[in-house]
Amino acid sequence: MRAIFIVFILGLGLQAKGQDDLVEVKKFGSNPGSLKMFLHKPPMAGQKHQRMPLVLALHGCTQNAKTIADESGWSKLADTYGFYVIYPQQRALNNISSCFNWFENSNILKDKGEVLSMVQMIDYATDSLSIDTSRIFVYGLSAGAIMSVALMADYPDLFNMGAVLAGGPFTPWLNAFNALPAMEKPEDMSSKEFASYVREQNPNYKGKYPRMLIMHGTKDNVVNEQNSYHLIKQWAPLLHTDTVPTKTVSSFASKPEIVRKAYCDSTGTEQIIFYEVTNLGHNLMVDPGDSPKQGGQTGAFSINAGFFSTYWIAVDFGLIKE
Length: 322
Fold this sequence. Notes:
Shape: globular
Structural class: alpha/beta
Number of strands: 12
């Protein structure tokens, strides 16, 4: 029962209205994680000569591909700015609460289970579509957020940047029994120790690691915000930054509750970005509407905050020029 409770609470939404423009791809590889793949193609796909970016969007528990497509607003942005979106979907047979199994080594370590299935989805897209392989991004909510960190840890050369909403660091020592205490009271350690778990996935890797974007509410009673600070500690050595922000913007986008912190390397490049939101719980921030900076839909864990978080993430990804 404890394990069921863990996977049940790690969600960011229940059900939403259908997304008619998602196409299921049934054959995309050996699929060792037994996931489903849904693809959104923007209207201009095939009409542009240049290769287009790709976003992999991972849902939270009790969600599915349609839920995250509707609530996050990624498909709307893809249609406007020209990029593909892949929505992996968990099966109930794998997890009773439709969570990605972020606490199982058989699904988060390199070339295993669910992470390998997701990489095979990307491989399918790059083989069959006109994808700019230097502009592949991953985005995840809650359980999907932690899986997105696992993907970046396992395949650092594949992703340009990732967005982690209400997630935490790559922690391969967790399991279904100790994951809940770790979410509530995460164990602290040095940056070097945190980073070592990532480096162990690719011991001989000398290339760049994906830049990291983090978003977390100070009142999240499901995933303690301290997990995001541990994620910063984990990736700071990998991205050659300090764990203290280089620059801070209060009242970001005229929202007093949102503080944007940037952690820069020696060249001044923003390698880690942290949106800390005062009094936000375990929720996705959206701003339903038709203006360019509005989008997303409200749901059980998706709230109208007057802030279209996906838009600003797309700006940080470089998909939108602000």
